[in-house]
Each structure stands twice: as structure tokens, then as C-alpha cells.
Amino acid sequence: MHSSLSFRDFPLGTKIWQAVEEAGYTKPTPIQAAAIPPILAGRDLIGIAQTGTGKTAAFTLPILAKLCPEGNIPARSGTRALILAPTRELAAQIEENVRAYGKHLPLRMATVFGGVGGRPQVAALRSGVDLVVACPGRLLDLLEQGYGNLSRLEFLVFDEADRMLDMGFLPSIRKIMKWILRKRQTLLFSATCSAEIEALAQEFLISPEVIEIGRRANPVETVKQLVYEVAASRKADLLCRVLEDAELQTVLVFSRTKHGADRIARTLERAGVRTAIIHANRSQSQRTRALEVFKAGQVRVLVATDIAARGIDVAGISHVVNFDFPATADDYVHRIGRTGRAEATGDAISFVTREDFGALRALERLLGRSLERKRIEGFAPEESSRTPSIGGREGAAPRRSSWRGRRPGGLRRRRLVPQT
Biased composition, Basic residues: where in the chain (predicted)? Predict the structure, then answer.
């Protein structure tokens, strides 16, 4: 990719160039440089790139340019662009980006997701908006009640499509598609190219151009991965000890359960560590506020469950802590990908109890390497329970583990665009 390429090299229009520059951007990322031209040319597209590489702008900028040629918008006659996202947080962040890039355009948009009152969303759909950002569940609910007009849709985007499939949205997506005509441009963005993603693309895209940037599967190279062996009863105390290190400035802590997240947050607050929480039992206003204060640096730690954290895009997370060991390889990769995003560096710390040793060994086999181990006196499980890593004692009998995960690095490559 030519290093001198700028956004002004793409025919986006003066008003979009101005908004992008006001947002502080001049040079496109690799996914943006590769995706914008075919989208402007009207091609269906599959973009495979890890989170944090600038995928949102890669589809937002050309869609805005085509919605508002020369900075103007044609007479309104129903929604012309729909962006589907798996979580409320991601939908809200896409909305924020669209508003920033389209700030000088006469664009009307709405964001549709659950967890908040539906009346403003209904009013926006009734009034006729040009672009809708939506989670599939709430959008389908409103469509079935007779709100919204997708019959003239020109642009459809599946963002983080792999997560939408993981979260069981495929039936809702298929129902939504009944309101949409085939004559449209469809874009699919995903961090992986699994068989399920390929099936989704075959169902809804026509002769798509496929762009792949790097690999999502092996954990981000800039992330240092460290394992603390700990007794299950001492994990909360160990977290407080680890947080005594001032280098852990902006920390995302993953809990397996909602109640566990609440307990972790209470422990940290009692220890004097300012903490926010995101999980499914929190209201949308609470989740939005938690993200806001974390982004602003008003709290040092954000505690989250896996599903709630999907789509979180916060620059500058210094550390991810797996308080509870993740259930799958994909969850592990997704979690540690919250730090070390784009060109940044970061650290991922995993707490591993005796019950997690088999799962850890399985992860190391999938990664093809051992993770660095660390123990702190007084916190570690009994020495007799310690289990060797992938490079450990020969002849050690593997323990059974229910841990499962697809092998990271299993993407089937079609077109590779190298990182700059």
C-alpha cells in the first residue's frame, strides 16, 4: 500500500474530506485503503480484518459519499442504508462515527437497539431517515409492528458478522431480509472467515470482492500474554495486588458471569480502585455511562462479561485481565484483542486456577506455543497441582477438559492485502 495515500485521493467529496480531517485523520488504514475503492464502484464486498483496524470508516465513508453526492441528498423516500451490528455498544459507536464523518451533510439517521425506550426509535423510523444503525433483534421487532421502510434500501452492511452469528442472530437476519429487495449493495465485515461466514456471504452477497488484512486468529502480535497461577479463593485478592502496579493504567477485566462482574467491581471499589461495569443486567443508560467514564479516564477499570464487551472500541486500553479463563479460543482472542489495537502495544493477563489447567494446555496447543507463567507467593495453588505447559514434562498424561475452540489462524485466504 502506498504510504503517501490520503483520504483526498478517494472521490469522497469536499464535505466528507473536511469532516475526516476535523476528526484528526489524514491517511487511511490498510482496510480503508483497500475497501473504499470497490465500495465506491458499487461492488459487494467481504472485509476480513481484526477489530481496531478502522473497519467502520472503511464502509461508512464510501456509503456517505454515495448517499450524498456533492454533499447533497436526493428526495427522501425511505431508508437507503442499513448497518447491522451485534451489540448496543457497537451500534452506538458506529452512530458516533457516522455523525462525525457526516457532520457537514444533510443526513438523517436513527439508531435502533434494545434496552431503551422504543418511542424515539419509532418516531425516527416514521419520520423517514436516510441511514439506520441497528441490532437485529430490536429492528425485527419494529419491522413486524409496521415501523420502518426498507423497500428502497440501497446499502446493507453486516458489521462484526462473526459475532452476530455467535450470538444467534441468523434467524432474525433472515426475517429482516424479507423486507429488503435484492437490488442493493451488500458489505460484510468480520474478524474471521469461518464456514458460517462463507455461508452467510453466499446467501446474501453477489460476486463479492474479498479483502483480507492480516490475521485475526493468532493473538495480536503486539500483545504480551502472561498467566498467573492462582488459587480460586484468592483471585480477587490477586487482582487487587496486580493493580498495585501503576503500569496498569486502563484495565479491562473479564468475568464469566454477570454476578461475578458485580462482585469483582465491589471488591475493587472497596480497595479504592475506581471501577465501572458492563453486563446484560445493566440498563442501557448505565452501560453507556460506564463506557463514557472509562473512555474519559474517570475510572481505571472496566469489568465486563464477554457478550457485553463485544464491539467495545476504546483506544488506549493498557491491559486486559481474564479474571475468569475464557470458554473458547475465539473468546480468548477476542478478549486480548481489546488491547494492543492497531499499532498500539498492550498486555493480557490470565488468572488460571487448578480447574483451568487443562483448558490452558488446550489453548497453548492451539496457539502452538507456551504462555509465560508467573506465581506470587501466597496466591498460587498448591505446588502438587501444578500442571506442565505444552513444552513441559514428557509423558505427562493430559487431563480431560471441556474447553473448546477453533484453531486460531484457520482463515482460508483469498486475497491478502499486506499491512503497511
Answer: 401-420
CA dihedral (368, 370, 372, 373) positive or negative: positive
Helix H or strand E encompassing 374: strand 372-374
Q: What is the pLDDT of residues 177-198, one digit of tens each?
A: 999 987 899 999 988 777 888 8
Alpha carbon distance 245, 110 (integer Å): 43
Beta bridge partners of 47: 189, 211
> 3-state class of 2 per DSSP?
coil
**Structural domains for the chain:** 7-213 (3.40.50.300), 223-385 (3.40.50.300)
**Cα-trace Rg, the chain:** 22
Contact 128, 160 (CB under 8 A): no
Give the cell for residue 131. 441511514
For residue 370, how many other CB atoms are within 10 A of its CB? 17
Q: What angle do CA 261, 263, 265 make, to 5 degrees?
A: 70
What's this model's pTM, rounded to 2 decimal places? 0.63
Q: Which three cell numbers stand for residue 17?
A: 474530506
Locate cell 437507503: which residue?
A: 80
Give the side-chain half-sphere CA count within 13 A for 413.
10
User: Three cell numbers at 299?
Assistant: 475510572
Sheet strands (E) in 129-279: 131-134, 155-158, 185-190, 209-213, 223-229, 251-254, 275-278
CA 26 – CA 18 distance, rounded (Å): 10
The contacts of residue 203 (CB under 8 Å, 6+ apart) are none
Is there a contact between 182 and 383 (Cβ–Cβ < 8 Å)?
no
And the C-alpha cell for 53?
A: 483496524
By the 8 A CB rule, do 333 and 219 touch?
A: yes
Is residue 110 within 8 A of residue 125, CB to CB? The reply is yes
